[in-house]
Design brief:
alpha/beta; 4-stranded antiparallel beta sheet; binds magnesium ion; about 260 residues; binds adenosine-5'-diphosphate
């Protein structure tokens, strides 16, 4: 494949939200949300607290189903997939959620091996190699023998990233990956996420309310407001806002 074809991508949409509506009771969260994500791209989803960022992400995995509109992954409405198809789709996705959700009584290496043992036919030695490879990628090559309780919050986050990458997913979903980390460690995690974006072919969706992460990691940004995409722009444009809501949002607070 030529570089030109690889970089073209404009029509190569992997995730598409089309006029998506979602309410909980009388509480309308998504109200005509539309955007798409190009294969290999890193899209940030920003917005104030409670605007529906996590809800949006949960539609991509089929944990929530829209009231109307379409949420497509590779052209297929996730809500229309059979349980088997949904399971197959989820196996191609990696998730990084706020809480690392590591199993406390398993070592780091055992935590990483688990999805491989459950979802692949790799042999024990292949699994061992893969675990070592991913630990090296997140720059904690010696952490495999430790228990989650023996490592710092920043290291746990790195293990969480390694676990999301362990099956070489096509799509990585991050929900506030920096929550609870101090600014210095957040920065190093942001840099690691960017490194992952540069070294893997995966497409990524990054839900974040802090601009530092978006600035470092994302190619483009969707800003949720009133249940819709207020803007969908390349990150550098997004960082020079003209819309009053964005000027306000991107004030000094967003940098904290
Ligand atoms: N399963 C659910 N049932 C009822 N309300 C929900 C559910 N999930 C989210 N909500 C509500 O939807 C709104 C948006 O939630 P969320 O997407 O988590 O916000 P955020 O943008 O901070 O991630 C919140 O008011 C939340 O309470
Ligand atoms: Mg959230």
């Amino acid at each position: 494949m030529s570089t030109e074809t690889e970089n073209q991508g404009a029509d190569d949409v992997i995730i598409r939200f089309e006029d998506v509506h979602k309410s909980f009771g009388s509480h309308r969260i998504l109200n005509g949300l539309s955007f798409d994500v190009r294969r290999g791209g890193v899209l940030g989803i920003m917005g104030g607290s409670g605007t529906g960022k996590s809800v949006t992400l949960r539609h991509v995995i089929g944990l929530l189903t829209q009231d109307s509109g379409r949420v497509e992954v590779e052209g297929r409405n996730v809500a229309d997939l059979s349980p088997g198809e949904l399971q197959a789709l989820r196996k191609r996705m990696g998730f990084v959620f706020q809480e690392g959700a590591l199993i406390n009584w398993l070592t780091v290496a055992e935590n990483l091996a688990l999805p491989l043992a459950e979802n692949t036919s790799l042999s024990a030695s292949e699994i061992e190699d893969r675990v070592a490879e991913k630990l090296a990628q997140v720059h904690i090559p010696d952490a495999g023998g430790k228990l989650p309780s023996e490592i710092s919050g920043g290291m746990k986050k790195r293990v969480g990233l390694a676990r999301a990458l362990i099956t070489d997913p096509d799509i990585i979903l991050y929900d506030e990956p920096n929550a609870g980390l101090d600014p210095e460690i957040s920065r190093s995690i942001n840099e690691l996420m960017r490194e992952i974006a540069d070294t893997h072919d995966a497409t990524a969706l990054v839900v974040e309310h802090r601009i530092g992460c978006i600035e470092t990691v994302c190619d483009e940004v969707v800003f949720l407001h009133g249940g819709k995409a207020l803007v969908h722009q390349p990150t550098d444009e997004f960082l020079r806002p003209t819309h009053p809501r964005l000027v306000e949002f991107l004030g000094p607070e967003a940098r904290s």
